[in-house]
Design goal:
CATH architecture: Alpha-Beta Complex
Radius of gyration: 16 Å
Distance between the termini: 34 Å
CATH superfamily: endopeptidase domain like (from Nostoc punctiforme)
Helix content: 25-40%
Number of strands: 7
Oligomer: single chain
Largest sheet: 5 strands, antiparallel
Amino acid sequence: MNFHQDAQAAEMAADMSATSTGARAVTLAEGWIGTPYRHQGAARGIGCDCIGLIRGIWHELYGAEPEPAPPYATDWAERGGEERLAEAAIRQCGPPLVLGDARPGDLLLFRWRAGCAAKHVGILAGESHFIHAYEQAGVIRSALVPGWCRRIAAVHRLPPAIVIEK
């Protein structure tokens, strides 16, 4: 095997690992459906918000949360302010992807309107659905209708998880 073949093999292995992490993230997210909405919560079956859903799934994938979540307001449509959610996604998952490259298990960050920070997040669950915690409904699977699609601010891929067989 030459250097080019080694690089291709490594890229394919990383891609397969990311795909399996994405599939596992979707499966885990589906297990949270029906969890009631609780601002700043992160407990499956008890209560979570959109960030808590991702924190809980992250914990199930990697064994710990990546960083403590600072206190945050309930209004995800507030104007101005820091892009704390987007910055955390970059720190933990790397730079955003092109929307057309999104795959199941990727994080979708949403911005209510221009001038607002991205303050909502969900997990892509297929070509036309995502799973998220929504104040009026708890954790649900929603269709990616045009109203949601035009609010997508960024797409991030979860880093590959090491699966430990039990």
